[in-house]
Known about the structure:
Elements: H1 6-9, H2 12-29, E1 32-34, E2 45-47, E3 50-51, E4 55-57, H3 59-67, H4 69-80, H5 83-90, H6 93-96, H7 98-113, E5 119-131, E6 139-146, H8 159-169, H9 173-176, H10 184-199, E7 205-209, H11 217-228, E8 234-237, H12 239-245, E9 246-248, E10 254-256, E11 259-266, H13 277-288, E12 292-294, H14 297-302, H15 305-311, H16 316-320, H17 325-333, E13 338-340, H18 345-356, E14 361-365, H19 376-386, E15 395-399, E16 406-411, E17 419-435, E18 438-453, E19 467-469, E20 471-473
Parallel strand pairs: 4-20, 7-8, 7-11, 11-12
Antiparallel strand pairs: 1-2, 3-16, 5-6, 5-17, 9-10, 10-11, 13-15, 14-15, 16-17, 17-18, 18-19
Helix pairs in contact: 2-8, 7-13, 10-11, 12-13, 18-19
Amino acid sequence: MAALWADVLRDEAAVAEAAAVAVDAALLQGVLMRTEGEPNASHAVNYAPFTLLPSAVPSALFEQAYAVQQDFNLLVDAISQNKEFLEQTLASTIKVDDFTARLFRIHMQVLEEGLAQSVFLGINRSDYMCDCGVDGTPALKQIEINTIAASFGGLTSRTAAVHGLVLKVLGKSKEASHLLPNNPSKGLALGIEKAWELYGSQNAVVMFLVEEVQRNIFDQRCVENELWNRNIRVIRKRFRDVFEKGSLDDARRLYIDGQEVAVVYYREGYVPSNYNQQNWEARLLLERSRAVKCPDIATQLAGTKKVQQELSRPGTLERLLPGRPEAVARIRETFAGLYSLDMGKEGDKIAAAAIADPDRFVLKPQREGGGNNLYGEELRKVLENIRDSPERTSYILMDKIKPQPAMNYLLRAHSPLQVTECISELGIFGVYVRQGKEMVMNKAAGHLLRTKAIEHADGGVAAGVAVLDTPYVV
């Protein structure tokens, strides 16, 4: 598996020619990002970083990741509706983590007022690595599930065509024909369309809530254009626009600039730096509204690392998914070891184990967006500083997954072409829509493969570490 393209990797002239073709193909297909220098203008763009060659993924693990996605959709939805579970699970975290605490306060305030929202839309991405463990047998292990602003469904819909062309240029037309079709942007748009339809107002719009800095706009435009093609009007607004121009009527319908909003699709709002006081007020206004939020605040809380850790405790999945033993078994099979750092003997013991052997673990804070996890010596230093403080409860520990590296070329603008030892992470997009208590859509909507050099422990494409890839299923 590690030597999938061994003949190509040895031929420097062929690689150089294929890389030139690949970059032009990426530009032609629209695998684009705005530049760091001008992140809010599209007159200067470049290709999003990607691998020259598709990466091997074992077919059994690829199929397993797809097979469990509907189960994860049901699980996230169940957690979001379980006030007591969220309250108990996050009790220690909200004492020490202000960001999670503020989200939780809005959640409680909205519940006390009574939910105006009756249609719920979830778009998530469950990320995995192939763990080769002690005996070398590959096993699918979940890294995390992203329940807000799960990105790259758009650009990854256009990446397989680039890799297909590269393989043909390298004389591998047969292998090119084995690349699987993949169009998450369409799958995500179908979920948004269903939520818009169930909201029940033909003139209402879909609002993409976007960041101040919008380098990754083309990824969003892929989904946006799918909606325009279905005659659904899309507007792009920031938190500050909601604060200045947003209002609710007596029925708690949401209006921005006089336009009724049916669906709010968050591509923002997942890290503390996204918020100032005005933005928190805007978030509360959105949550109080009748509009379908993707995600609503309870679903965002369902994606926290503390919830991920709590799910691994014996009996938790059974309580959240009663009467679904097969789903519980499929989900549990993907869990790596997850450990609480709550105050007490259990937390003391695991903190001591991680300080003694930091290379066995990953220390994860309650954050989305990549680049936040701690490893090795850095993990040891942080844990030594907070081991006796309640601050440690804002983190969880997870067993470090050990994937099988493979050689590839990572194509980045203004970077030299060199072969690199890499590891990959497979994400499966999930989409579900619930109306009241009835699940009206629940499906896997496509995949994302991201690859990075082995020396980069953490971080995704938007964080500037990983690059886009295509699975070559073996």
